[in-house]
Amino acid sequence: MAKLVLIRHGESTANRDNIYTGWNDVPLSPKGIEQAKAAGLKVAKIPNFVPTHIHTSVLSRAIMTAYIVADICDFLYLPITKTWRLNERHYGALRGMNKDVSRKIYGKEQVLEWRRGFDSVPPLLERPVQDRRYAKYDMHLMPRGESLHQTQQRLMPYFEEKIAPELLAGHDQLVVAHGSSLRALIKKLENISDKDIVKLEVPNAEPIVYTFDQDLKITNKEILS
Q: What are the residue numbers of the active site?
């Protein structure tokens, strides 16, 4: 049996200020740093959790959380992969906007659908993000805004090619990512319906521990809140 631990990054400055972030690169807040440390202490106490690899996004708030957790757990020696496929959902033209302001402009129901619905796409940017961390990729792959469904579609190839084979081989894995990208992954892992995914929340820095059998079926789930 292998364990998969999922962690949403600690509070970012955008979380603190109630701003849509998506692919904007923002740091952890002081509270977020402390949350990441607390998450590390919880992960360190997981029985028989010996990961062979750490996976995270290319966004600082997730990377720093991963490093803080790894430092506390003595995992800094492990290989770490940073991939855009684990990035937060791309909020398109909403990014950088205060969430309360968006409700006033677009209405509460529309904003709720954008934030929690599975297929609803926010207003798009005119062009993909221009950032050196994405320069090596085909710009046609880069989104201008995403639904949760689209986030899942660009995330799952990485899970299936890089994480699932390690779990099948009996190797524990640690993933540090974002609220929406983890919601997209959890939806697939737990076969949550499009309707019920609206109810799923992934709090900052609360490790989620899955145990899988040899067929990659979940035998146990624990949230270290």
A: 9, 88
Q: How far apart are CA 173 and CA 46, in angstroms?
A: 13
Residues of the chain whose pLDDT is less than 50?
none
Task: Copy the structure tokens of residue 29.
Answer: 């807040």
The 10s digit of each residue's pLDDT in 1-59 is 899 999 999 999 999 999 999 999 999 999 999 999 999 999 999 999 999 999 999 99
Q: Where are the beta strands (DSSP E) in 111-223?
A: 172-177, 208-212, 218-223
Domains of the chain by residue range? 2-17+28-90+146-223
Closest CA to 48 of 172, 154, 142, 132: 172
Measured CA distances, 143 to 43, 88, 126, 135 (Å): 33, 12, 10, 13
- Domain 2-17+28-90+146-223: CATH architecture, name and number where available: 3-Layer(aba) Sandwich (3.40)
CA of residue 161 relative to chain centroid, distance: 17
55 has which bridge partners?
Answer: 81, 175
DSSP 27-81: PBPHHHHHHHHHHHHHHHTSTT--EEEEEE-SSHHHHHHHHHHHHHHT-TTS-EE
